[in-house]
Fold each of these.
Amino acid sequence: MRIGILAYEDCFATEVFAVSDILRIANQVARHNGSTGAELFRTSVVAAQDGPVATAGGLTIGAQRWHHRFDQLVVPGFDVSPTEDLDIRLDGRSREIEFLRAAGRRRTRIASVCVGAFLLGEAGLLDERRSTTSWLFASQLARRYPRSTVCAESLVVGDGQVTTTAAFSASLDLATAIVRDHLGVSVARATARITLVSENRTSQTPYVVESMVAASTGPFATAIQRWLVDHLAEPYSLSRLADAFHVSTRTLLRRYADEAERSPLAYLQEARIGAAKRLLTETDLTVGKIAHRVGYQDPGTLRRLFTERVGLGTADYRRQFGTRRPAR
C-alpha cells in the first residue's frame, strides 16, 4: 500500500513522521507474527517540489515531488492560532489544494490531521461528508464549510474516501486505524502497545478547555453568560434572569437565541461542567462539594451529566487529568 504524506511550508513535522513511523513498526510486527512476508505499507514524504521543506519552527525535512500513484494521502496540520486569518494562510496553499482536489477526483483515499482538514475543505473534499478537526478549530471548520457535518467531539471520522482527525497526537490514532483496516486488529493492537499508543480513544471531549474556545455571541448574550457564571452555584430561574436584565422572559429567550443560537440553560449546563472539570483537576474537593459549588444539589446529577457530556466519569477524569490527590 503506497502512502504519500504531504509536506508543505509550516506543516507540523511530528504529524508527518508519526504516521510514517507507526506504519513502519506495523510492518515489522506483521512480519514477526507471520501476517505478511513483505512490507505492506510503503510511505513517502511528498511535496510540490523535490528537496527540503521548511516545517513549523524552521525544521526542514526532505521530500520528493508529488505524483498521483498513491493508494492513500495523509495531510498534516499547519501552525496557526485561532485568532489568525485563515484566508491568508490558505491562500498560500493553492498548489496543495489543487493537488488534493485532483487526488479526490481520482478516488484516492485522503486523511487529514488537525487543521489539515481545512485544506481538504478548500479542495471540496468535505462537502456532504462528516468531518472533524481539533476542538479548538471545530467551530471555524463548521462555519467555513457548512456543507460538511462537523463532529467536534470525535477523534477520528471516516466518511467514504475521506478521513479527518483531531489535533496533533491524533496522527497516532490515524496511523493505528490504517493498520487496523489493512492488517487487522491483532497487528494494530500489538503496534499500539509497542509504541504506547492508546487503543481505544474515540472522543476529544475530555481534552476541551472551554475558556479557550472562541465565543461567537453578541453583546446581550455575552452579558447573560457573565451573569450566569457569576451566579453559577444558584438555582436557575429564567424569571429572575429576565428581571436582572429588565426584559420579559420571552424577549430574553428570543434575543439570546438570536445571538447565541441556543438557550441560556444550555450555556449554564456547559459552564457548570466546565467549572467541575477545573475543580476536579485543580483541587482535592470531593465530588459532593464540587456539585454544590457548580449548582447541583445532588452529586449523582453531576456525575450523570458529566459522563454524558465529557465521555468520562468524574473519577476517571480526575485520575487522567488531575494534579492533586482527591480528599477521602
Amino acid sequence: MATAQTPGRHGPLTGVRVVELAGIGPGPFAAMLLADLGADVVRVDRPGGAGLGIDPARDVTNRNKRSVVLDLKSPEGRAGVLDLAARADVLIEGYRPGVAERLGVGPEDCHARNPRLVYGRMTGWGQDGPLAPRAGHDIAYIAVTGALGMIGAPDRPPAVPANLLGDYAGGSLYLVVGVLAALHHARASGAGQVVDAAIVDGAAHLGAMIHGMLAARAWQDRRGVNLLDGGCPYYGTYETADGRYMAVGALERRFYDEFAALLGLPSDLAGAHADLARWDELREAVAARFKSRTRDEWTAVFEDSDACVAPVLSLREAPHHPHLAARGTFTDHGGITQPAPAPRFSATPTAVRTGPALPGAHAAEVARDWDLPAGA
C-alpha cells in the first residue's frame, strides 16, 4: 500500500491517487493541478514521449508527479494500466473517443477492476456529436462557441488569446471540477462514473453572463462595441510613450472619477463616460494622455489609487511585480520560474514539491508505494 503521509502536509488532496495517461495540453495541466493540490499523480508515459517537442525537464505541467513508461499497445502495458487503475481514485485520459476502448483501458475495462474509479475524459469536441472523432485545437473550439468572436478590435480579425481560454479555462479547469465532484459522489455512494469534459462545453459555459446580457439587450453580438470587450474607452488598453501599454478597468463611477483626475482629462469631458455618442472622443483623449508618459511613469501615478489601472507586463516581467512578489504568486524551483500552486489553503498548504517528472523515472517507487504485482 501507499507509504504513510502526514495529513495536510502536501495539500488537501493528500491520499488521493490519480493515473494520468500521457497526452498534451489540457489533460496534463489538469493532472498538474490535482498534483499541486496534493494528489499522488502517476503519469503513464508512452515509449518515445508524447511529442510535445520541449525538454521534459522543463515541462512544468509535469511537476509534482511521478512517471512510469508503459506501451499501451502491448498486453503488458495494458495490464500495467489496469493494475494502476485498480488502485487509483481517478484516471485521466485525453484520447479521441474510442481510442482508450480499443487499447483495452476504457471505462468498462477500468470499472471492471475498480467500480469506484472516477474516469475523466478530456477532449475538445466531447465524446459524442458529429465532430467528436475529428482533430482540433484550442482555436477551433473557442471559435465555434462564440468566445473567439468576442475578442479583438471590430475592424480587425479576432485576437487569439494563446491557448488559455479553450485548453485551460474551458478544458482543464472543468475537468478538475468534474473529477472532484465525481470523487465526492464516489466516496459517498461507492460508485465511480465517467466525466466527459469537452472544451467546447466549458468554453461555452464561461460565456454564461454574456449570454444573459445578450438576452437582456445589454450586449451587442459583435466585438469591440460593448462594456467589457474594449468598446468602452475606460475598459481597455492604451499605448504609452515608450511603446508599452497600460490596462484600464475603471467601470464604476467612483473609480472612473479617480482615473480621470489622475490621468488629467480635461473638464469638458466630465460627462463623456456616460454618453455613448462621445465614447470615440473620450477614447482619443485618453489615448493622447497615455502617450504623453512612459508605462513606468503612469504606473507610479496610479499605483496607490483605486482607479483600476495596471501596467501590461510580459511573462518575464510579471514575477517581479511588487504585489505578485510579495504574495509569492511565482516561485523558482529547479532553476525554472513558474506560477506557484493556486488557490491557497489555510490548513493544507500546497507547494511545488518536485520538478517535472522525467519519463519512467519513478517505476520502482510507484510499484512499491502502489503495491503493484511483481514484474508490473
Amino acid sequence: MAKAAMPKAAMSKAALVSLATSVPPNVLLQKDVLAAAWDGFGARFPEFERFSSIFSNTGIIKRHAVRPFDWYLEPRGWPERTEAFLEGAEVLFVDVAEKALASAHLSGSDIDTVVTVCSTGIATPSVEARVARRMGFRSDVARVPVFGLGCAGGASGLSIASRLAQARPGSNVLLVTIELCSLALRHDELTKANIVAVSLFGDGAAAVVLRAGDGGATEVENAGEHLWPDTLGIMGWSVDPEGFGVIFRRTIPDFVRAHLNPAVVRILADMQLTMADIDRFICHPGGAKVVNALETALALDQGTLDCERQVIADYGNMSSPTILFVLEQAVAKGLPARSLLTALGPGFTASCVALRHAA
C-alpha cells in the first residue's frame, strides 16, 4: 500500500531586515524651478501661463537633484545625460546600499542577490556591476537589473526581491531602487506633459535587505499586479535625439478614481483578503491630486495618506523609490498588523505588496 504523501512545510516568508533612503545633495526649491521655467518656456510656449499653476498644485516644496541647479538651465544631449546618470547613480547606489547594510549589520560580501530597479538611465554593465568592487560584493553574487517599471518599480521590485529571498531561505537579498528623474528635463518639448515633468520629478534612491527564515518582524505576505488593456499611452518614455521624453496622455487622477478600486479588490481577492483586512494603505504619491484620487478610490478619509503628502512635499516624485520613502515614514510611526503598498506605473499597471507586521 502506498504511503500517504507528507504535507509540505510552510515556506518561510521574506522579511524586511532593513530599509534605507538617500537623496543627492543639490536642493531645488519649487519656487525657483517655477521662476526658471518661466524664463525657459514663457516666451516660447504661449500656453505656459495656463499650465504654470501645475507647479503650485503638486504639493511639492523642494526636490533633490544629482546636478546643481544651473546645470539644468542649458539643453543637454544623450552623452551629457548619460555621464550625469552613471556618476550620480553610482554614488547614490553606494550611499543607500551601505546605509541598509549597516542597519542590517551586514557587509557587501554577505549579499547573495542584488536586485536593481531603475528606469531613468541606461547602464550596460548595469549599476550594481559598476559599484561591485566598492560595495565588496562577492564574485558569485546574483545580479537582477530591472528596467521599465517606472513609478511602480518600488512595489514590484520589493515583490521580485521577496520572491528571490523566499526561494532561498537564509540568503540575503539587497533591493536597490534608484531614479534620476531630473535628467529627463527637456528644453525642446513645448508640451503640457513636459511641464508636468518639470514641476514634479526629483532624484532619490532606496534600499531594502530581505531574508526569509529569520529576517525580522515585517514580512512580505503576498504581492500582485493588475495590467489594464489598451493603456500603453498613459505613462512612459519616448526615446528622442535629445533624451527621454515623458509620456502623459491621460489624466492619471481621473483614471485612479475610475479604475483603481476594482483592481485592488481583485488583487486582494487573489491573496484571500478584502479591503477590510487592510489596516493601512501605503501609496506611491504621484502628486497632490493623485493622493486625493487615491484616498477617494480606496474609500479613505481625505488626509489619511499623511506620509504620502509629506514625502511629495519634501522630495517630489522620484518614481520607483518614492513608495519606499513613504514606507520608511510609516515604519517610523509604527506599522499596524497588515499594510498594503500600492504603486502605479507604465503598462498601465497597479502593483501591490501586502506586509504583515508582528508587534
